[in-house]
Amino acid sequence: MGRPLAETSSPDVRRSGRKPSTSRGELERLALELFATRGFDETAVDDIAAAAGIGRRTFFRYYPSKNDVVWGDFDRELDRMREWLNTSHDELPFMDAIRGAVIAFNTYDPATLASHRHRMSLILTVPALQAHSTLRYAEWRAVIAEFAARRLGQRPGDFLPCVIGYAALGAAIASYEQWLLDAHTPLGALLDTAFRELAAGFCGHEGP
Amino acid sequence: MGRPLAETSSPDVRRSGRKPSTSRGELERLALELFATRGFDETAVDDIAAAAGIGRRTFFRYYPSKNDVVWGDFDRELDRMREWLNTSHDELPFMDAIRGAVIAFNTYDPATLASHRHRMSLILTVPALQAHSTLRYAEWRAVIAEFAARRLGQRPGDFLPCVIGYAALGAAIASYEQWLLDAHTPLGALLDTAFRELAAGFCGHEGP
DNA sequence: CACGATAATGGCACCGGGTGCCGAATGGAA
DNA sequence: TTCCATTCGGCACCCGGTGCCATTATCGTG
Questions:
Q1: CB-CB contact of A159 with A110 (8 Å)
Q2: Distance from CA of residue A64 to its chain's centroid?
Q3: Closest alpha carbon to A145 in A160, A165, A163, A159
Q4: Which tens digits make up the pLDDT trace of A76-100?
Q5: Stated pTM of the model
Q6: What's the CA gap between A15 and B144, in Å, rounded?
Q7: Which of A87, B76, B177, B197 would suit a FRET pair with B58, their CA atoms being 20 to 30 Å apart?
Q8: E-only strand ranges, B11-116
Q9: How far apart are CA B71 and CA B6, in angstroms?
Q10: Are A169 and A144 in contact (CB under 8 A)?
Q11: What is Dmax (Cα atoms) for chain A?
């Protein structure tokens, strides 16, 4: 539901002190490699730490949990999507704007596509990650709900914006699941279909 | 998303052997009471086991995890909802049938309403339970998707039924969240609104 | 009643994720 | 060099969850 970035890349004013031994991006690379070969559950935090040459305790200073490694810098991507929606044209119907934003933020160049596919495969198939992802999805939904609320003249916590946030999330996840099952149809096309169905209320399919 | 039952209540043919020390229902009661007073995270499995007078090891023979206690016998409720949908009239548009089923299976008599509210409050606010619930929701979605697939002449794993399952789940959860925030509006009314919006594609709200 | 089959119990050791604490290592700045 | 900020990483600990296995309770049968 958004492209996680590898590097934090915020060149904070470093005043003094010991230099970090590694980086979030480096840990993410190593961890995903281990997950790919050995499996997520079969890879212990100690294994990742050992591969990076750091202590287990230090790992948890880079990522709050083993699960979070898979998500990389998801928050930055959310900020960009929020910005995109902020600057969308008001003439565009809001469900079209949401559809456009979701598609735009899930379009990858071929170079990074394979790794993204692996990442999403983990998130959507490993039970521990499926469960954990709920907490990340909440932030994603909030971005959608905020936008919908603004367009509808309501507050982000109001009922309808929340329903829209949840429904949009569902459409996005279902698209990803389908894409993982069968890579033949590009993700963008699946997202487009799902969000158009959503905006149409799933009508026009039933018949005798 | 469905009324969990307290008792397994399947009077299995008991041939011989030691009698169970307690029951799922009893553990559920005790656990929810502890969660209410002390909080979910602050209640250890040992506390529940001690309250029930059983060993910690035995607890895990009644429930596979601490999280699962909150869900009670969710599977039975799913079976009932599946059955309900199976016997729904074919003339009824399928989105209306889904709406009706969800409302029916989330209507409680006042006696059990308070405890159900507590249960759902835990599920939707405690992070550990929010995350875990994803796995339960999957079964719920499957019931919806199966029904939608049958009505649309597709297979349960096909794209559109899955999207509908996810969207319906979102509508239901959003309704519950709203209900927990403000019990003034009855849950049934919120579900009705959410599912009607869903079936209408959220149109008719934007304007100058 | 005694015996054996059956089933539940619960203690024990163990694993893995995650945290609080604290001293040690590192590197820039005064 | 000295001081300070920052990171590191070991250690002990908590908690959820599991495999193993001896123990205990119950029922049916001889």
A1: no
A2: 17
A3: A165
A4: 999 999 999 999 999 999 999 999 9
A5: 0.91
A6: 57
A7: B76
A8: none
A9: 9
A10: yes
A11: 74
* Whether the predicted pLDDT of B203 surpasses 50: yes
Which protein residue's Cα is closest to nucleotide C20 at C1'?
Answer: A57
- Give the residue nearest to nucleotide C8 (CA to C1'): B18
Q: Which nucleotide lies at the shortest CA–C1' distance from B22?
A: C8
* Helix (H/G/I), strand (E/B), else coil: A31: helix
Instruction: Pick the closest to residue B198 from B116, B93, B104, B74 (CA basis).
Output: B93
Which pLDDT band holds residue B72 (cuts at 50, 70, 90)?
Answer: confident
Q: Is A207 exposed, middle or buried (0-12, 13-18, 19+ CB in 10 A)?
A: exposed
Listed as ranges, the nucleotides of chain D within 7 A of a protein C-beta are 4-11, 14-20, 24-28
β-bridge partners, B5: B73
CB atoms within 10 A of CB B123: 22
Distance CA A201, CA A178 (A): 20
B190 inside 8 A of chain A by CB: yes
> Which residue from A165, A206, A187, A182 is spatially nearest to A82, judged by alpha carbons?
A165
C-alpha to C-alpha distance for B162 and B141, rounded to whole angstroms: 8
Closest nucleotide relative to residue B16's CA, C1' based: D27
What percent of chain A is modeled with pLDDT above 70? 92
Q: Residue B153 and residue A208: Cα distance in Å, rounded? A: 10
Residue B57 CA, distance from chain mean position: 26
